[in-house]
Amino acid sequence: MAQLTLEKLNKRYGEAAQVIKGIDLQVNSGEFVVIVGPSGCGKSTLLRMIAGLEDISGGDMYIDGVRVNDDTPSERGIGMVFQSYALYPHMNVYENMAFSLQLAKLPKDEIARRVEEAARILQLEPLLQRRPKDLSGGQRQRVAIGRAIAREPKLFLFDEPLSNLDAALRVQMRMEIAALHRRLKSTIIYVTHDQVEAMTLAQRIVVLNRGNVEQVGTPLELYDHPANEFVAQFIGSPKMNLMPATLVRAGEADSVVRLWSGKDLVVPIATPASAEGTKVKLGIRPEHIEWGSVAQAPNLADVLFVEHMGNETYHYLDSGKLGEPWVVRDSRRSDIAAGETVGYRLPPEHCHLFDESGKAFARRAAGNGASRIPGVDAPPITFAEPARTNALH
Description:
- This protein has about 400 residues and is of the alpha+beta class.
- The chain folds into two domains: about 5-230, Rossmann fold (3-Layer(aba) Sandwich); about 240-355, CATH 2.40.50.140.
- About 20% of the residues lie in helices and about 30% in strands.
- The chain has helices at about 45-50, 95-105, 110-120, 135-150, 165-185, 195-200, 220-225, 230-235, and strands at about 5-15, 15-25, 30-35, 60-65, 65, 80, 155-160, 185-190, 205-210, 210-215, 240-250, 255-260, 265, 280-285, 290, 300-310, 315, 325-330, 340-345, 350-355.
- The protein has a six-stranded mixed sheet, with helices on both faces. A five-stranded antiparallel sheet has the order 13-12-11-14-20. A five-stranded antiparallel sheet has the order 15-19-16-17-18, with no helix packed on it.
- α2 (about 95-105) crosses α3 (about 110-120) and α3 packs across α4 (about 135-150).
- Pfam families: ABC_tran, OB_MalK.
């Protein structure tokens, strides 16, 4: 296990192209941290800098308090798992896992001990004499992980290791990687563009955008309290719905926003007096929009498109001239079809507010679920904690 500290870390390619922009980050010993962001945000470059495969243009990096800016990859005590597996096709599984240990001139019995232990942990013992071409994608990925384990590194780095696998194998490998972390209690930094991997694997998530850290926190902290519009729409699938509004009254506990429809909505969000009269955006997660009978709902919308997922249904509502359709998630199967009109309500306790720069205003914690629209005959859908409702008529 190792602690990693980044201080004002920068990466430039020439004078103009700055890819990593002054990142400060501390990864604690034994922690599983996932770096997530869109393509081109700099996450793989940052990981390669940590590994020593890319030079550091500015700032400092420490492993267990020791500055390692100028150390070679082998001197940093790091094991890296690549997206492409990077296995030698002419070597069998044992030879692939042992190769880096042989280069380090370890004794043969020590190499055998490490390879056999890694194979036991990853259930690769029956496959040690096979070559990569005789393995499935999931088995190849386990070999790549085993090769890293055999080095007994201080720090594990994973660079989008599951992107080449099909959906079922990704689920299986996520469980295996999570179990591996619990077993080894190792420090892991994992890069992905897949937010499902980030939400299910991470103890903390680092959201990266254009070389900057947008927010660091636990998966639920980022989901429930996004720091800005980017995080709000990147974390969560489907993404958060955003709607234009005007802040007509600021307050230390509650604020009043005027929606596009001309109606006012009181939200449990603190806003400064200086923000009164400014344009804001109201955000709400798809599962928090309440909807029901047209007669008793405060707002109406046409259904543009319906996605039946089997265990749940996504409805895309016409937002008029506001841009993208809004998405509503119903936790049940639905017989609503495109072209129908539905009623909806925006529960204030589940709303978010973002200022003109995209920064979130402080939001009070939501209660144990919002009430249904009166008159809806379907019972609320409740979960263990907290209770949630998404009624459909």
